[in-house]
Specification:
Order of helices and strands: EEEEEHEEHEEEEEEEEEEEEEEEEE
Distance between the termini: 20 Å
Largest sheet: 11 strands, mixed
Number of strands: 24
Number of helices: 2
Radius of gyration: 22 Å
Strand content: over 45%
Helix content: under 10%
Length: about 290
């Protein structure tokens, strides 16, 4: 289709907290500083951040230390609930030989795949919100797994390792990437720019938002795209590939089922690696670096 148109007998996290209460006593602010020194090469290390409310900004640099600056804001409609938030809310920092994880530890655990059953059985009601805004500096070659849900954007710049970036109600911006990427949001745009072509399958997804991904001019890949209410545009020369037919075996009926893949797929250059792009309401733009 051609258009026209994480660580670490290492330095333990050094923490600094500065707090203040607003005059209304309905908002409490704290600033947290953390620092971790890698004990493994950055390319063999992972930083994971599991946020719920708030933004995450990650910047890569030439070094071997992770620094986190976190603005924490607790809000509530009354003093009693605000005090409950100050008492109950806790952040966690989990450190292993090759990883650092920042997450919410209480009143719930924000890490994925954690069993929340005990929390639900307590039947507690949270009448306050806690917003965490992260500014993080990391070694360039580290691998990232970062996510948030509400009231914040996620941005990553100059990080060359593997990227797994998730949001729900907000956009995602990736600048100067090189590694394999899995980028997913629900309500927000996705903007990605690569300095080098990823070497393995990449996935990009948003339900409500524009998707814009820029690759080096020497891109050679198969591009698969799907959008119910949007179009696909690219300034790369492309070749439309045949519709895929998927084969599945139904053991109960002793038969074989063939399913037509309705995704459109085009080839850039000689093809090879597969990049998947999907939106529901939004256009997809695959651009050539100028």
């Amino acid at each position: 289709m051609k258009p026209n148109k994480l660580i670490i007998p290492f330095l333990m996290g050094c923490g600094l907290c500065l707090a203040q209460i607003t005059a209304s006593a309905q908002e409490f602010k704290t600033h947290i500083s953390k620092q971790f020194t890698l004990q493994q090469p950055a390319a063999a290390s992972v930083l994971a951040i599991y946020n719920v409310f708030g933004s995450i900004k990650v910047e890569g640099y030439n070094g071997n230390t992770i620094t986190m600056e976190i603005d924490e804001t607790i809000k509530s409609d009354n003093t009693g609930d605000l005090e409950a938030g100050k008492r109950d809310f806790k952040m966690g920092f989990s450190q292993n030989k090759d990883s650092v994880i920042a997450y919410i530890a209480a009143p719930y655990d924000s890490r994925p795949h954690v069993n929340w059953r005990n929390y639900r059985e307590d039947d507690r009601h949270i009448n306050y919100t806690v917003k965490l805004d992260f500014i993080v500096k990391v070694p360039n070659n580290i691998n990232l797994r970062v996510s948030t849900v509400n009231n914040g954007e996620v941005s990553v710049a100059d990080v060359y390792g593997k990227l797994k970036v998730n949001n729900v109600n907000g956009g995602i911006t990736i600048a100067n990437a090189k590694g394999t990427s899995d980028i997913h949001t629900v309500n927000g745009p996705v903007t990605v720019n690569y300095l080098a072509i990823p070497t393995d399958t990449c996935k990009y997804y948003t339900i409500n938002g524009k998707m814009e991904v820029t690759f080096p001019k020497n891109l050679s890949a198969d591009l698969q795209f799907k959008s119910m209410n949007g179009s696909f545009y690219t300034d790369f020369d492309t070749e439309t590939l045949p519709t895929q037919v998927l084969k599945t075996v139904n053991k109960k009926e002793n038969g074989t089922t063939y399913k037509i893949n309705k995704n459109t797929q085009v080839r850039v250059g000689s093809g090879g690696r597969l990049f998947k792009f999907e939106t529901l309401n939004g256009n997809i733009y695959i651009k050539k670096q100028s």
